[in-house]
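= Tokenised fold =
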Amino acid sequence: MSETEPETQTVADLIVDRIAAHTDHVFGVGGANIEDLYDALHRHPAVTGILAKHEFGAATMADGYSRATHRLGVVAATSGGGAMNLLAALTESFDSRVPILALVGQPPTTLEGRGAFQDTSGLPGRLDAETIFGAVSRYCVKVTDPQDISAALDRAIAAALEGGPSVLLLPKSIQAAAVPATPTGPSNGTSATGFASISLPDVPLDGSRVVVIAGPEVGLADARDELAAVVRALGASVLVTPDAKDAFPNRDPLFAGVTGVMGHPRAPELVADADLCLLVGAALPVTARAGLDAALEVCPHVVYLGAEEPFVPAHTVVRGPLAASLSELAGQMDPVPAHPVASRRLPDSVVPEASGPGVRYRAAVAALEDALEPGADVVVDAGNTGAAVVHHLRVPAGGRFLIALGMGGMGYAFGAGVGCALGRGRRAVVIAGDGAYFMHGHEVHTAVEYQVPVTFVVFNNNAHGMCVTREQVYYSGAYSFNRFRAAEIGAGVAAMFPDLPAWTARTLTEFENALEKARAIPGPAFIELQCDPDEIPPFAPFLKEPLA
């Protein structure tokens, strides 16, 4: 090559070079029409390619990585069925505003409309991938000219960092094409937009009549420190939504509990008695606000801060970057003098006594909490198990708490736990039911393959537990579509992966012993906990006590 001839690289190399400013992992499943990207990953010294077992699992790995690290999650998949398998996970990232970049292979452009295998070009008689993915993304484009890749990548990353998935559809012929080498893009996201000036109502801020409800945007914006500064300046009681348990330290005396269907039944009383309720990144969809509507109506001052439009009426709405809004607010207030604060923790829900086999939810969650070391991350799946953990578990200091409540897809936690642990470089504990395990639990294999420090805890009641409970509470209960033939999950996993430490616990003591042993394992570990399919979890719609 002459000195005047510009240096070139493939489109795939350019993509990997540019995303290296935003991530150090790409999660995916291989295939013919995405293999050029994997070839580029192999050549890059700073980005590691992780091969999942299913594209849903790969996308949840990217989602968990992004939520835990506040960086861009990147997932790669081939065309056809591989591409379509991404959709369920991307709907979760879309609804929960998680920054994800999906790199999706497509057949070579020269074969489109000519019988190409997995043709989704949108030509007559063919599926249209751009339309399909456009419905679950903030930005979606098919790159048909190699010279367009740089601009398309810039737009895709910027849109994702605003909150939600972006999708680049990449024909194989485009990935392999040569383009001029370009400098690595900037490592920061889009610049913050302006926001309205913040002014709290003229109310007495004596610490006993102010309630803060923190939502998931606190974590997405990495605004925990800014929230804590406002809380302490106000001397406020803090409630969190079910998907924001790590927004404020759970052992702090100012922490009161959780709102919504998995929350604490007296949370509405706390809000109704307040002079001021400050909603911080808490738009309050139904799962987070159940029982709060009447309380918010009687609260004389409701102020909302966040990027999303709230689902509840507020007297003052301040839209804009959350961390900046909180910093401005904290700067306007004189800190409350430090003094001992009595615990404001609300009492737990009262659930019916269970008489079936296995370990009770409350005792199991207490054992889990005792076994979690400071900084450990917790990733929870949907269902009765998730409801019990959201309600009872205190997140370890410095740890993250992840749960998929946007779409509530079962099996999310297995992939998200892998992404979380790889992103944070510390142990993640995945807590899920057997139904979730049967859907996407074989991402355990990915943890084994890469020796990722994840402890998988599967509550096995041989049922889709929440569906069984619904059959009992809302229908006759004389039949069940949701009870399974008994499965020995722990023994099965141990047989599949002889090098994976795996235990089955039938009693609380066995569970505690297994948790203690798992703490000494540097890589993955697996615990099956047997429990009762008929136990009612602390899930407000199933309980007789009122929400307000």
Remarks:
- The chain is about 35% helix and 15% strand.
